[in-house]
Amino acid sequence: MDLSFSFKIYSSAGSLPQNWDALAIENIFLSKKYLQVLDESSPKNMICNYIGLYKNEEIVGLVITQMLTLTEVSSFGVNKSCIKSKLRDFVFKNFAKNVLLVGNNMLTGQNAFIFSDKISVTDGLSILKKAVTHLKMEFKSRGKKIHITSFKDFTIEESKNFKLEGFKKYSIFSTQPNMVFTNLDFWKTEEDYVTALSKKYRDHYKRARKKSEMVVKRQMTLEEITENNPKINELYLNVTKNAPFNTFYLAENHFANLKDVLGDKFLFYGYFLDEKLIGFNTIIVNGTSLDTYFLGYDNQHQKDKMLYLNMLYDMIGYSIAKKYSKLIFSRTALEIKSSVGAKPIEMVGFINHSNQFINRYIGKLFRYFDPKVTWIERNPFK
Predict the structure, then answer these.
(1) Any bridge partners for residue 186, and if so which?
(2) Taking Cα atoms as reference points, which of 107, 164, 99, 166 lies closest to residue 329?
(3) Low-confidence ranges of the chain (pLDDT < 70)
(4) Which of 81, 186, 270, 294 has its CA 20 to 30 A from that of 87?
(5) Fold match flag (5-177+347-369 vs 179-344)
(6) Cβ atoms of residues 296 and 238 within 8 Å
(7) 139 close to 147: Cβ distance less than 8 angstroms
(8) CATH of domain 179-344
């Protein structure tokens, strides 16, 4: 590797170099503003660091890392009492308390780093690995030994770059696919999209819209988000607590902070029934793409009004109307996202345990604690 390459680790967005955003322009999730949001309202069990890669004095790479202390959150939702959850709690407490992620655990997809054309991907990964080793030593000096290190969310094609000497001790693992809607250029309006659906799925669309006729959807301002913050947090937790596994919970002021800092790049839509907030969804504008973010709803109205399905249709309609090239639905709820036209993109990561014996079996352990989800891919179009 070229000896002119070096790295610098930053502990806050405020300390990043002035020219950071010249490279981050390709991805809002590595921009100073978004990283500022993480500094001000990241989950309580998360410590974020940012790494600049340099060639001589020129910045040629941007990286985000997140250190998660899993024992500080109730990770297993409403299934806490089951034996498997108790076993996972024991394992996490004793062998996986501190996890260092290269990437963003709050998003799906390759949001870990950007390299300029002045550094090859292989050189970038090599110097990044050295930076991660240095960062782990820094955490250890502060009494936080890193048990697991993971590079997350890469496509199969992107993962080929990791086949370097320094990554041989890392096991590759697969996660749920990233559900991405890419047919947006085919239609000019939401009606065109509905026309393209087969009769079965067009009927699903009409039924969902009929169910939600009394629900009023509107984009909420910073003031409205702040005013409704307790209810928003309640709706968010209502959805999150039912997930089989959680590594963090959003800070209560996270959405307001995002709106305050990102402005019109962060869209917050409230769903109201009789002027009462019953659900919300959020979108972040990332160049020509849209990333769906977190959402919330109460269970009664989700069922009666088919809120979740209507939210998916609303996001598709918005994407078409505003002519975005791609709508990233992320993982979870794979089948219903497939039923509206999203396609799965297989994602993999790389994982390493600090204990050599455990590391030999880390791939099998990961599959045990995070088993593959069985689902049926749908094709809703004619």
Answers:
(1) none
(2) 107
(3) 1-3, 74-94, 244, 368-371
(4) 294
(5) yes
(6) yes
(7) no
(8) 3.40.630.30
Closest by CA to 266, choosing from 25, 15, 33, 9, is 33
Which structure tokens are listed for 177? 């696919």
Predicted local confidence at residue 342, as pLDDT = 97
Q: Is there a contact between 325 and 185 (Cβ–Cβ < 8 Å)?
A: yes
Phi first, then psi, for residue 268 (nearest 5°) are -120, 115
The model's pLDDT over 185-212, given as tens digits with 9 standing for 90+, comes to: 789 999 999 999 999 999 999 999 999 9
For 5-177+347-369, the fitting CATH number among 3.40.630.30, 1.10.3720.10, 3.30.420.40, 3.30.450.20 is: 3.40.630.30
Q: Say what the pLDDT of residue 2 is.
A: 61
* pLDDT of 241: 83
Supply the DSSP symbol for 171.
Answer: E
- Name the residue ranges covered by the structural domains of the chain: 5-177+347-369, 179-344
The pTM score is: 0.93
